[in-house]
Write a structure and sequence with these properties.
129 residues, mainly beta, Jelly Rolls, five-stranded antiparallel beta sheet, four-stranded antiparallel beta sheet, 0% helix, globular
């Protein structure tokens, strides 16, 4: 069964705190796209049923990125990521903020001005679309 390990570390001058949780289920989803500069609304097929997502991680390497779900004109959700940002969320590990709180995802639309590499990994239950 696929597993995604979610780890968060907070460090100050005198203390380091870390939480690591392995999230496992029967299905994983992956997206890997490299986008050229001045890419607008690049369409990616990606089906994620909100209630079935156990963990999701996304990163934008190289440039800022805007992610719209399901539609370019009236998206279900819009996520804005800065260059180098990693987004972690897990419903079971209690980590992060749900990037898609409004609607199930059927497509992603990716926009970048500088160009970027986008990666997404998700662990979902068997009934996910």
């Amino acid at each position: 069964m696929p597993t995604q390990t979610v780890s968060v570390t907070a460090t100050s001058a005198d203390l380091q705190m870390q939480q690591t949780t392995a999230v496992t289920d029967v299905q994983s989803k992956s997206v890997d796209k490299t986008l050229a500069p001045s890419t607008t609304n690049y369409e990616v097929d990606c089906v994620l049923t909100r209630a079935q997502i156990k963990a999701i991680s996304m990163q934008s390497i190289g440039g800022d990125l805007t992610i719209k779900t399901n539609s370019t004109s009236a998206p279900g959700d819009t996520v804005t990521m800065t260059a180098g940002q990693v987004w972690l969320w897990s419903s079971t590990a209690g980590v992060g903020t749900d990037p898609f709180p409004t609607a199930d995802v059927t497509k992603l639309y990716l926009t970048t001005t500088a160009g970027t590499t986008f990666n997404l990994r998700a662990i979902v239950t068997a009934t996910n679309g």
